[in-house]
Amino acid sequence: MEEKKIYIIGAGLSGLVAALELEKAGLSPVILEASDRVGGRMKTDEIDGFRLDHGFQVLNTAYPEAKKYLDLHALQLKTFDPGAVIFDGKDSYVITDPLRNPLKIVGMAFSKVGTFLDKVKMFSLTQELKKKSNEEIFAEPSIPTHQYLKQYGFSDQIISNFFKPFFRGIFLEKHLNTSSRMFEFVFKMFSLGHAAVPARGMGEIPEMIKRQLSTTQIYFNSPVRSVEGTRITLENGDQLPADRVIIAVQPDRIMKQLQGQFAPARTVVNLYFSTQKSFLARPMIGLLPSGQLVNNLVFMDDVSEAYSSNGRSLLSVTVLESHLTEKELVKAVQAELESISGIKAEYFKPVKQYHISYALPHVDDMKYSIPHTECKIVDQVYLAGDYLLNGSINAAMTSGRTAAEAVIHSFMPTH
């Protein structure tokens, strides 16, 4: 079985996990990666003494796949405090632990965000979801999250002050039309685990999987133009014959027959600013329920000191949609930051802007997993990627493993 030529297109999480699983079966795949490093959508740049993740991303420590493929201890995970700082015009208040321990929340803050009944409902929902398996959650009927929250009996107050800004930042869409399956899964994960980042940035996660590979070859700066059958054509015109191909990027880019089959991906703009010091002063996410542009913000060095090595504070700001130019957007966001913090706009120094056109796949029928028989698209060609399941780190890893299983299975003698 040694000499099989297996190519994996894309060195994101799905492609790396697929390679790892193929190695365990004694195979030596080759990964073709268009960029200069592993990670796909999960990358960290080092600029001016800051570590900048491409988009605000977190790892949930309860993800089953993360426990399987990552050494969470070696990543030196830094966790966020559960809850959020809510900025309501000039007013701000902290709600701690709304998902992890809803009944312990006392004091005034929560009453501004929601009602006593909301607390009770939060508690009962976390208890219900902890009893459900992830497979059961994804087998539930799917309705839009905003409708689910109403039906569950949450008040308009808590939906607009907490759920909307919190989950908009996760789903990257304004109206919470995302499937209730995804809401239940994420809600359960947040009530069981912690949101965390590796001390040295999210790029450490794909690097850790890459370090586990021993017989896989990775060719960087090797964009693929097309896959026809098992013939791979690179952008430079080179052709590679393969025994098996795993496409671990969105396949419509390289398979002509799939063009137009995918809904446009979710986009996001992530702006970084440096300031003298954090105005949050705690490892917590800030939510702007009535923000004109800003959905959420976080000082990354409050979470992990290693995000800044130059003595200044690093502020990450997420904007879901904007039609402004880069310069106009910086000015508008600075003005919004001034209005909530009282700190003059010019003290927020722009570091970098990321316009991420493919931040999350648009998935209509969300699933937790699929049988490996469903990964095959044509003979000897298999698909991997979170778009097959749901937009999450967990799903990216699951799909990589499933595609590898399909390939391994395809070499088995049939009786």
Automatic annotation (TrEMBL):
Signal sequence segment: none
Q: Name one Pfam family in it.
A: Amino_oxidase
A GO molecular-function descriptor? oxidoreductase activity
Annotated TM spans: none
Domain Amine oxidase: from-to ranges: 13-408
- What Gene3D superfamilies is this protein classified in? FAD/NAD(P)-binding domain
PANTHER family in UniProt: AMINE OXIDASE
Q: What is this protein called?
A: Phytoene dehydrogenase-like protein
Tell me which species this is from: Algoriphagus aquaeductus
